[in-house]
């Protein structure tokens, strides 16, 4: 075992010159997805300041010197939209919030010209939750709204105006992450309330994938996948018709066999 003495490390640090390296900033951008009116929707904020003033963008902002990336993502979500994510540090497992909001790191974006102000590296996060409330604008956002993903992807436009920065690409990556992960993980239940029916879960898959699924086949698959769903013991008539059995998310994180996405 090699032992590095503290005096050696101090000596090396004394020769370190931070000015020898170009400065850059770190931001967090949030792809916040929910299902509203049976459509997969993304949260957008309208920028109230330059650059891209008046453009729709993903919520986010600069990371402070005294906070980590997850903490910055949680703070920006609350400041710009009024939505609450996990408080860091906390006693809950990473990725879970008191309201069941799912938050995970998505990807890092660092093209030298992605921000006209300076060199900025963005660490994007994916946020998923059921029945998220109407957002409110805050921070440097002049307004905020939910927009159907079907209207944003492909053309990467909202109200005829391209999304700010490289947020069109970040949004597309976040949506594809959600679409692919619900194939092999229990992530689809993050869009559902604590207790839900198989029909409600099916509509989540249909909204995220943009397809129509056969109800009987879907019921057979999800109830036959070990650890995916657990009966809660209750029923509901909120969908109309006969009482439907209520379930909660099971303990399985990976689905075997997976829920394969149908071909478009």
Automatic annotation (TrEMBL):
GO terms for molecular function: hydrolase activity. InterPro entries: Nudix_hydrolase, NUDIX_hydrolase-like_dom_sf, NUDIX_hydrolase_CS, NUDIX_hydrolase_dom, WH-like_DNA-bd_sf, WH_DNA-bd_sf, WHD_NrtR. It comes from the Bacteria. SUPFAM superfamilies: Nudix, Winged helix' DNA-binding domain. The keyword Transit peptide does not apply. Residues 23-171 form the Nudix hydrolase domain. Keywords: Hydrolase. The keyword rRNA-binding does not apply. Belongs to the Nudix hydrolase family. This is NUDIX hydrolase.
């Amino acid at each position: 075992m090699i032992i590095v003495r503290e005096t050696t490390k101090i000596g090396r640090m004394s020769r370190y010159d931070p000015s020898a390296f170009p400065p850059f900033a770190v931001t967090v951008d949030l792809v916040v997805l929910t299902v509203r009116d049976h459509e997969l929707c993304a949260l957008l904020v309208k920028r109230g300041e330059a650059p891209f003033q008046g453009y729709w963008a993903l919520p986010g902002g600069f990371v402070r010197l005294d906070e980590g990336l997850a903490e910055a993502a949680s703070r920006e979500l609350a400041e710009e939209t009024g939505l609450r994510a996990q408080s860091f540090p906390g006693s809950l497992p990473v990725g879970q919030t008191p309201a069941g909001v799912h938050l995970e790191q998505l990807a890092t974006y660092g093209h030298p010209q992605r921000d006209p102000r300076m060199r900025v590296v963005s660490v994007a996060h994916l946020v998923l939750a059921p029945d998220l409330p109407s957002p409110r604008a805050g921070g440097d956002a002049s307004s905020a709204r939910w927009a159907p993903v079907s209207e944003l992807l492909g053309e990467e436009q909202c109200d005829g105006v391209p999304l700010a920065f490289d947020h069109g690409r970040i949004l597309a990556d976040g949506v594809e992450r959600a679409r692919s992960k619900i194939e092999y993980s229990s992530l689809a239940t993050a869009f559902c309330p604590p207790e839900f029916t198989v029909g409600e879960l099916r509509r989540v898959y249909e909204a995220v994938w943009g397809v129509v699924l056969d109800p009987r086949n879907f019921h057979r698959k999800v109830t036959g996948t070990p650890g995916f769903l657990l009966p809660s013991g209750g029923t509901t008539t909120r969908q109309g018709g006969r009482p439907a059995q209520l379930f909660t998310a099971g303990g399985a994180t990976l689905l075997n066999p997976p829920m394969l996405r149908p071909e478009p």
